[in-house]
Amino acid sequence: xxxxxxxxxxxxxxxxxxxxxxxxxxxxxxxxxxxxxxxxxxxxxxxxxxxxxxxxxxxxxxxxxxxxxxxxxxxxxxxxxxxxxxxxxxxxxxxxxxxxxxxxxxxxxxxxxxxxxxxxxxxxxxxxxxxxxxx
Length: 135
What we know:
globular; 2,3-Dihydroxybiphenyl 1,2-Dioxygenase, domain 1; 135 residues; four-stranded mixed sheet
């Protein structure tokens, strides 16, 4: 069966700083698709974040590029295997220069927290009890 992939393309003000930030979160970089103008962050086998310099990002769109520190262009939500892993990734993000954002969401069966990366993009990290999603 074909595994569809998701490529999240985001504009960044500093490709090198973004590379360091996401490496410090524990993600790997695919050097084949990285350069001085972009960094390819491997989040999972099917999820890739492409952090592109604003100039390079502009070659893919005629629209104005959002200033993600002032407006929300996208909310990216990643799953985590446990509540502890949610907290662990948030702690890594803050230690790497990110900012905790929003309120902790604790609904018992679902737990989530959010952080903004160096460019202000919001990343949500969420755990849900597998028993709660069984049909």
